[in-house]
Write a structure and sequence with these properties.
This protein is mostly helical. The chain contains seven helices and no strands.
């Protein structure tokens, strides 16, 4: 029972078991959560904290169940990373699309220290590269919005 629950949560309600682009679809799920909760900072922070904490609790166990390091079916890290990427950003179509693609790019290219943290065992290795990708996407978006508004 515990293994099934861990896999259910780590795959973010089995999104990770989809045959095509589970990481991107999980990122879309994170975007949808943001759209639903962005007007309520307390609810947003609750969702971000809960999803991140659950990710740390279950992703290491899910790795063991699947039998490989950071398998593509574990996507709760993408959902948490997307919520970090959107932190305190205004909501508009252009911001949603740009942030989504920035996050996916940072997640794919694993810019320092993400590539080092990804090598850690268990949940830390699974979660941290996506959380870093979220921070990078968020910083780029806040900087871009600031510069656009300044000039």
């Amino acid at each position: 029972m515990r293994n099934k629950l861990s896999k259910f949560l780590a795959t973010f309600f089995y999104i990770g078991d989809l045959p095509f682009a589970p990481g991107s679809i999980a990122s879309i799920a994170g975007t949808l959560i943001y759209i639903i909760v962005y007007q309520n900072l307390v609810l947003y922070l609750f969702c971000l904290t809960a999803i991140t904490a659950i990710g740390f609790l279950v992703s290491g166990r899910a790795e063991k169940i699947v039998g490989q390091k950071d398998p593509t079916c574990i996507v709760i890290d993408e959902v948490a990373g997307m919520l970090i990427a959107f932190f305190m950003l205004p909501i508009s179509f252009s911001v949603l699309i740009t942030t989504f693609f920035l996050f996916r790019a940072f997640d794919m290219f694993k810019i320092y220290p993400a590539y080092k943290l990804e090598k850690y065992p268990g949940s830390v290795g699974v979660m941290m590269d996506d959380l870093i990708a979220g921070v990078y996407a968020n910083l780029v978006m806040h900087s871009a919005i600031y510069l656009i508004n300044k000039f």
